[in-house]
Amino acid sequence: MAPNIGLRKKRTRLSTSMQYSQKEYWDERYQKSSDSFEWFQSYEDIKGFISSNIPKHAKVLHVGCGSSELAVQMNNEGWSDITNIDFSASLISVLKEKHSNRFGINYMEMNVEDMSFATGSFDAIIDKACLDSIMCSDESQKHGERAIAQIYKTLRPGGVFLLIATNHSESKLRLLERIEYEWSVAVEAISKPGLLDVPLDDDVSYHYVFICKKAQGVGYQTARN
After folding, report:
1. Residue 69 lies in a domain
2. pLDDT (tens digit, 9 = 90+) per residue, 165-203?
3. CATH number of 107's domain
4. Are 43 and 70 in contact (CB under 8 A)?
5. Is 32 domain-assigned?
6. In angstroms, rounded to a whole number, what is the distance separating the alpha carbons of residues 122 and 55?
7. Above 90 in pLDDT, residue 218?
8. 113, 136, 135, 137: which is closest to 63 by C-alpha?
9. CA 97 – CA 81 distance, rounded (Å)
10. Nearest to 218 by CA among 118, 114, 120, 112
11. Of 70, 67, 62, nearest to 27 (Cα)?
């Protein structure tokens, strides 16, 4: 019987994507290289969304920061209170040393699914590919729910959550639009880098920016499991 090559390729793709949800993968990756790398979109690509939604006096949290230079570039343009978290201890150690002389940027080892910040600690929260990585796990819905619940709790009333993601799937919308969450959700498409001069007529040509604005005067309700 001929081998099922198609099935083997599918399993390889699944196993490859699932590694993005695993702490061990990221620790190993960053031990090999902690050079800056931007997932999906650079600061220049998304700064319009940032500047129109996040005032420069805001207290900002960047979750799953990885080796992105997003916080540094925002800091260069006037944002002066940015906390970056990632669950890779080896990466955070490198970033703390690398940016030790820079005012207004802080790095902390922390998992977005289990943050230790007080309720309503931040005016704005940015996620650039973190939720996408979490949802590569074999229990994607459970881990995604934990992350979004923590983000909602940590965001102050009136604050904004910017999520830059690879797609606008129904599973993401279900996470964001749960009845417990008193925020408005808008989604905007942004062309993938390098595709500005070609026809953009299909879903794979875009990344997506979710703009979640939390209502004023609301508290935090625990999401139902």
Report:
1. yes
2. 988 888 889 899 998 999 999 999 988 875 444 444 556
3. 3.40.50.150
4. yes
5. no
6. 12
7. no
8. 113
9. 18
10. 120
11. 67
